[in-house]
Design a protein that fits this description.
Elements lengths: L3 H4 L7 E4 L18 E6 L6 E5 L9 H7 L2 E5 L7 E7 L2 E6 L3 E6 L6 E6 L5 E6 L5 E6 L4 E5 H4 L9 E3 L6 E6 L6 E6 L5 E6 L4 E7 L4 E6 L5 E6 L6 E5 L4 E6 L6 E6 L5 E6 L4 E5 L5 H6 L12 E2 L2
Parallel strand pairs: 23-24
Antiparallel strand pairs: 1-3, 1-4, 2-3, 5-6, 6-7, 7-8, 9-10, 10-11, 11-12, 13-14, 14-15, 15-16, 17-18, 18-19, 19-20, 21-22, 22-23
């Protein structure tokens, strides 16, 4: 075990902002080939992609592909004293969570980019997610705590920055998802010692429901088209589970990954879900189906770009 002195000796690490749609080759890519991407997020306007770079094994990196798509826009440093493992966009604000337990709001438009720092977690910040309105931020930590931050409260001089401190989970909280069809509804998922999905009213701080999933909850994703929730899991099955909300009846289980499913992302039309796992594979699933309005509006295309992916509908 490292001594406290060794644990605090991390150098201030960097976030590299890139534009994935500009074909210009990253001029100093060779400086990063020995590093690892540990977190990634896209801004809503699709112009900025942020990659956290840290200790990459060079033989696993295809530098030719990366060089064609990454353009360094700027480097943000000084906000954290140890690694950055979680990020979330809120318009021009990039919010980062660190192993130091701090949450930092970075305004990427200005030179002095650190505009706010939220303190409440006692261990690493594992997950961050802004609400659709951009007013509330949910953070999950390795201290088993979920905080709800309201921008108006967190920006004040109040000694307590957070709006709610939710302590019902019994393991680290990485999975966070704001409901797209009901205001102030947040779903959170706990790690291997907890295994539950919990639902919260973030206006009152009340826990509305708790469901034991039977395994570590790594990520959560609401359907854009239906009242459904998708969860991704770890040991033992490394599965995706589709739930009907609010009954939480299990609709389907999808398997294929051989390690815990760490990340999920939804296509713009809400039909396809991409998953990334510890088995170093990226998989595509037709989980949620095509909304009825889209079915009526256009006939089925002759060739679908994801026609070969896993389907449940």
């Amino acid at each position: 075990m490292e001594s406290p002195k060794e644990q605090s000796s991390y150098t201030v690490e960097q976030l590299v902002a890139v534009n994935p749609f500009n074909p210009e080759i990253l001029p100093d890519l060779e400086n990063y080939v020995n590093e690892q991407v540990t977190s990634q997020t896209y801004s809503l306007d699709a112009n900025l992609c942020l990659l956290r770079l840290y200790q990459f094994e060079p033989e696993r990196m295809n530098t030719h592909i990366v060089a064609r798509i990454l353009v360094k826009l700027r480097t943000l440093k000084g906000g954290h004293q140890s690694r950055v493992g979680s990020m979330a966009w809120n318009n021009h604000i990039l919010t980062t969570g660190g192993m130091d337990g701090q949450i930092v709001n970075n305004d990427v438009r200005i030179r002095s980019h650190v505009v706010e720092t939220y303190r409440g977690h006692t261990q690493e910040v594992c997950g961050l997610k802004w609400s659709g309105s951009g007013q509330q931020l949910a953070s999950g930590g390795n201290d088993n705590v979920v905080h709800i931050w309201d921008r108006s409260v967190a920006s004040s001089n109040s000694t307590t920055q957070y709006l709610h401190r939710l302590e019902e989970h019994t393991s680290a909280v990485k999975a966070l998802a704001w409901c797209p069809f009901q205001a102030n509804l947040l779903a959170t998922g706990g790690g291997g010692g907890d295994r539950t999905i919990k639902f919260w009213n973030t206006h009152t701080g009340a826990c509305l429901n708790s469901v034991d999933t039977g395994s570590q909850v790594c990520s959560l994703l609401w359907s854009k088209n239906e009242r459904e929730l998708l969860s991704s899991h770890g040991f033992t099955q490394n599965q995706l589970t589709l739930w009907k909300y609010p009954s939480m009846v299990k609709m389907a289980e999808l398997t294929g990954h051989t390690s815990r499913v760490l990340y999920m992302a939804q296509s713009p039309d809400g039909c396809t879900v991409a998953t990334a796992a510890g088995d170093e594979t990226l998989r595509f699933w037709n989980v949620f189906g095509v909304p009825e309005t889209a079915k009526k509006a256009a006939p089925k295309a002759a060739h679908e770009p994801f026609s070969h992916v896993n389907r449940i509908r």
